[in-house]
Amino acid sequence: MSTTLQSWIAGRWIGKEAAAPLHSALNNALIYYTHAEAIDFDEALSYARKTGVPALMRLTFQQRAARLKALAQYLMGRKEELYAISHQTGATRADSWIDIEGGAGTLFAYASMGSRELPSSNVLHEGPAMALGKNGGFAGTHILVPRGGVAVHINAFNFPIWGLLEKFAPCFLAAMPCIGKPATATSYLTEALVRIINESGLLPEGALQLVIGSTGDLLDRLGGHDAVTFTGSADTAAKLRANRHLIANSVPFTSEADSLNCAILAPDVTPDDAEFDLFVKEVAREMTAKAGQKCTAIRRIIVPENMVDAVGTRLRERLAKVSVGDPSVEGVRMGALASRDQQRDVAERVEQLARGNEVLYSARDGFQPVGEGVSEGAFFAPTLLLCRDGMRNDAVHDIEAFGPVSTMISYNGIDEALALAARGKGSLVSTLVTREPAIAAYAVPVAAASHGRVLVLDKEASVDSTGHGSPLPQLKHGGPGRAGGGEELGGIRAVRHFLQRAAVQGSPTMLAAVTGEYVRGAAVQEGDVHPFRKYFEDLKIGDSLLTHRRTVSEADIVNFGGVSGDYFYMHFDEVAARDTQFGQRIAHGYFVLSAAAGLFVSPAPGPVLANYGLDNLRFITPVAIGDTIRARLTCKRKVDRNRTDDKGVGQGVVAWDVQITNQRDELVASYDILTLVMKRT
């Protein structure tokens, strides 16, 4: 029985009248319809701006990160509902795992990165501040703030869940409402996801809307505070990028397009090496995972001319073992393409690629999908072609069959291999399999110019490698040229993409107020209570302590050398030290840090629970025997992580600015010390 899908617009589900039919990839059975009702995109945008933006802004970066984590947990609790629906897309359990649990994992990753790297506010300081005048009264810095606009995410059919969530996560952290538009063919799975998200009650009103079907005039209604991201074909990306309204209003447009990614087998690898097997396994996996429907799939297999037969034989053996059919049948390792339309498109492109090339493995090698009704499904045989002259054959570098299809291309010498890789005109990812670090050092900088990501795979990396086709939330996903020229993922970099950067100038005191961080030179507050005696809630940015003084003696240096085992000549050899730029013996840098800690630490039990690191440490002026030092400790930054320890005690993170000076008021050393501080509640 078929169901009419609905769009989630302005806080309500829209759609009752059936429109375009959607079919199961497994047997072509009618399973859903898109809806015929037109969407009022002016209403959708107004709702996002007037309801979504204020609702998101009532939360801080940290609070939004906590919501992402809770949402990821909620989705994991209901993942089996999504697996059941994903089956209709032709995906195996392993394929769906990438989409469903990979999507939830991306939320977890951004939640974690947000809790570690973002402040308890809606202003992200992109410092450090810099002096703009001689007298210290005028400074400048950069801040990142929410744009106040709407992000439109247009996604491809191959990852209907991950595709939405990997864009939504950084947008949500950036307080930018999203309107998601999945590809129609598999939009039923995205609709199921959004229904579950709504049922969680975790998102602020207006944070996420869903469009089933056409985007109509949506892009023509966007402004300079909005943003568009696209994942799909390079041709469609080019058409959207050329939208006159987007150009006229300078609307940021980010594209992640399908590309002719490659894997290079370096000339040092032989069939007897473990790396040879790794290469073959990686290629075969990328050909068959998601039935080859991955924007990162290996389309070009670049191998030394003398290895063509060996690689071809091993690949044919692996592909012959891949059982294709309904993923519910035990033993099936590759499912169907997303639709019959996709099946026809791949067949046409394979026919084009086969002209002038050899077909090494295809449907003629005993292709027989298993399962009930599969004869009507969108199945396609793993297909391996061979091009013996890749420098003259343009088709292998221009035509992409978006399915389980790859072409092996022979080369002579690593320079020719790299030239062949670059013929793809820009790709998302390339893999280099080699045993020699010198080859990697030579090849990677060249490959990086035309690829968004480069995987160097050897036996050592294989124990943990996530593989050629696995974009990770922590790293950039995107590529130059044909691949779209955009960037997605990349950790907090992706969040910054949806924020507005502005330069701010003023006095250090004003900059501290704006950024929510202490800026050196700003006014400080000194009081009778030691800053380390204050609970997290009681601490204010700028709370400061100027310590008493300590004169460094020769005994200090000797004792520290004995404790640490550091007998470096600059600390102990008077004659050798006299010939250096310092002209005398100097104290250990780490002794200076230790002495400073002794000056500012409050030793009795209190709210400060632990010191877990130093950032931005610089030794600036040497400390000689007889110099007198003191320290200024100032509360620089507070981050409320909105969580408690195993005893239910709340904690926050406090970064302290430490400046150590000598008797001439010269800066000796500076750094940030990070501490966990207890809350009152």
Automatic annotation (TrEMBL):
Keyword annotations from UniProtKB, A to Z: Oxidoreductase
GO function terms (MF aspect): oxidoreductase activity, acting on the aldehyde or oxo group of donors, NAD or NADP as acceptor
The keyword Oxidoreductase belongs to this UniProt entry's keyword annotation: yes
Residues covered by the MaoC-like domain: 541-652
SUPFAM superfamilies: ALDH-like, Thioesterase/thiol ester dehydrase-isomerase
Pfam families listed in its UniProt record: Aldedh (PF00171), MaoC_dehydratas (PF01575)
All residue ranges annotated as the Aldehyde dehydrogenase domain in the record: 27-444
Name of the molecule in the record: Phenylacetic acid degradation bifunctional protein PaaZ
UniProt gene name: paaZ
